[in-house]
Design brief:
It is a single chain. The chain starts with 6 loop residues before the first helix and ends in a 6-residue tail after the last helix. The longest helix has about 35 residues, at about 230-265. The protein has a four-stranded mixed β-sheet with strand order 1-4-5-8. A four-stranded antiparallel β-sheet has the order 2-3-7-6, with helices on one face. It has a two-stranded antiparallel sheet with strand order 9-10. Strand 2 (about 140-145) and strand 3 (about 145-160) form a beta hairpin. The chain has helices at about 5-35, 40-45, 65-80, 80-100, 105-115, 230-265, 280-305, 315-340, 350-355, 365-375; strands at about 120-125, 140-145, 145-160, 165-170, 180-185, 195, 210-220, 225, 270, 275. The chain is an alpha+beta fold and about 375 residues long. The chain folds into three domains: about 5-120, Acyl-CoA dehydrogenase/oxidase, N-terminal domain (Butyryl-Coa Dehydrogenase, subunit A, domain 1), CATH 1.10.540.10; about 120-230, Butyryl-CoA Dehydrogenase, subunit A, domain 2 (Beta Barrel), CATH 2.40.110; about 230-375, Butyryl-CoA Dehydrogenase, subunit A, domain 3. Belongs to the acyl-CoA dehydrogenase family. This is Acyl-CoA dehydrogenase. Its cofactor is FAD.
C-alpha cells in the first residue's frame, strides 16, 4: 500500500497547480463578483486538456485516469469552486454518461468534441419538484416514428448557459416507474430548448446554473443514450462518479481556505504577537489539516477503486459525505481566524465558506449519502 503519488500523477498535479495559480486565482474574486465565468479562461482550460482528463485518447481525451481528474478538481477548487463544478459536471456527468453508455457512433459524434476541447457539456436531471428523489421527475419524451418529442422543465442545470451538448433524463413510459425513464443526448441548438438567465445563488456564483424548459423538442431516436428504460441506471452511475469529483472539490475548497489562513496568521498581530504564535491558533490549524488530509485520502481511495473497475459506490458516497463536512467546518473556522476581515468579500475565505455549503447538497445531499452508505454496510 502506497500513499504517495506516482511521478506521472505528481507531474499532473503540479501542472494543474501552476495553471490554477497563474490563470484562475487572479480572476476568482472578479468572476464571483460578476457572477459569471470568464469564457476566455474556460477556453484556455479546454486547450490545456482540463475537460477530457479521464477519457481515452481514442476519442481525443487526455488518456489519464480518475485519480488524475480528482487531483485536477482539488487544485482548481483551491482557487475557484465555480471553475471546479464546471469541470465536474462536464466530465463526470455529461461525458461520463456518454463514455459509459453511448454507442460508438454517439461517442464519435458527441463525446469526441466534448473531451478534445471543442465543446462543453451539461447534465439535465433535477426538476423543481424532483431533487433527491430523481424518480419524481415529470419530463416526458413520447416516441413518434423515428423521433422522440420531449417536454418538461429542469432546474439547477449547471453549464446550461453555454453548453453545446445536454444529457437529459425523461420518462418514456411513466407506468413503468423508474424502469420507464430514459436518457437522451441533445444539441443545445435544437429548437424548443429555452435556457433562463443564471439563477442567483449563495455560492459558486460564477458558474452557469439555469432553468431549462424543453418545449416539443424533437430528438432523433439515434440520440437515445443506452436502451429505453435505462435512464435511471445511467443517472445513478453518473452521480456515483460525480461524487468523487465533488469530494475532491470539497477538499480543494478546504485546503485553499487553510492555505490563506496559514499566510494570514503569520502577518496578523494582536496583543503584540503574530496570532499564528498562539497555541489556540496552532492547534486549530493542526486539527484542520489533519481532517483535510483524511478527506483527501478518502477521495483518492474512491478514485482508485473506480480506476480498478471495482464497485466504488459506497466509497464515493463516503468521500463526498466526509469531505463536504470537512469543507464546511474548515471554512467556518478559517473565517473565524480571519476575524472581522474574514467576513469581508475582499478576502477569499468568505467566498470559500459560501462555496463549501453546496458540496453538502448537489450530486446527492449528505442525507442521501448516509442512505447509500448505510444500505451497503457489511460486517468487516
Amino acid at each position: 500500500m502506497d500513499f504517495m503519488l506516482s511521478p506521472s500523477h505528481q507531474l499532473l498535479k503540479d501542472l494543474y497547480h501552476d495553471f490554477t495559480e497563474t490563470k484562475i486565482k487572479p480572476l476568482s474574486h472578479e468572476m464571483d463578483e460578476a457572477e459569471m465565468l470568464s469564457m476566455g479562461l474556460l477556453n484556455e482550460m479546454q486547450k490545456s486538456g482540463f475537460f477530457g482528463i479521464p477519457f481515452s485518447e481514442k476519442y481525443g481525451g487526455a488518456g489519464a485516469d480518475y485519480l488524475a481528474y480528482a487531483l485536477c478538481m482539488e487544485e482548481v477548487s483551491k482557487a475557484d469552486a465555480s471553475c471546479g463544478i464546471t469541470i465536474s459536471v462536464h466530465t463526470s456527468l455529461c461525458c461520463g454518461s456518454i463514455n459509459e453508455f453511448g454507442t460508438e457512433a454517439q461517442k464519435q459524434e458527441f463525446l469526441r468534441p466534448l473531451v478534445n476541447g471543442s465543446k462543453f457539456g451539461c447534465y439535465s436531471l433535477t426538476e423543481p419538484n424532483a431533487g433527491s428523489d430523481a424518480a419524481g421527475i415529470q419530463t416526458f419524451a413520447q416516441r413518434i416514428g423515428d423521433e422522440y418529442v420531449l417536454n418538461g422543465t429542469k432546474v439547477f442545470t449547471t453549464n446550461s448557459g453555454f453548453a453545446d451538448t445536454f444529457v437529459v433524463f425523461a420518462y418514456t413510459d411513466k407506468a413503468m416507474g423508474i424502469e420507464g425513464m430514459s436518457a437522451f443526448i441533445l444539441d443545445s441548438k435544437t429548437e424548443g430548448i429555452h435556457v433562463s438567465a443564471n439563477i442567483p445563488r449563495m455560492g459558486i456564483r460564477a458558474s452557469s446554473n439555469c432553468e431549462v424548459v424543453y418545449e416539443n423538442v424533437r430528438i432523433p431516436a439515434s440520440n437515445l443514450l443506452g436502451k429505453e428504460g435505462k435512464g435511471f441506471d445511467i443517472a445513478m452511475a453518473a452521480l456515483d462518479g460525480g461524487r468523487i469529483g465533488i469530494g475532491a472539490q470539497a477538499v480543494g475548497i478546504a485546503q485553499g481556505a487553510l492555505n490563506e489562513v496559514i499566510k494570514y496568521v503569520k502577518e496578523r498581530k494582536q496583543f503584540g504577537k503574530a496570532i499564528g504564535s498562539f497555541q489556540n491558533t496552532k492547534f486549530k490549524i493542526a486539527e484542520m489539516q489533519t481532517k483535510i488530509d483524511a478527506a483527501r485520502l478518502m477521495v483518492w481511495r474512491a478514485a482508485l477503486e473506480k480506476d480498478a473497475h471495482k464497485d466504488y459506490t459506497t466509497y464515493a458516497a463516503m468521500c463526498k459525505l466526509f469531505a463536504s463536512d470537512v469543507a464546511n467546518e474548515v471554512t467556518r473556522d478559517c473565517v473565524q481566524l480571519f476575524g472581522g476581515y474574514g467576513y469581508c468579500r475582499e478576502y477569499p475565505v468568505e467566498r470559500m465558506m459560501r462555496d463549501a455549503k453546496i458540496t453538502e447538497i448537489y450530486e446527492g445531499t449528505s442525507e442521501v449519502m448516509k442512505m447509500v452508505i448505510s444500505s451497503n454496510i457489511k460486517v468487516r
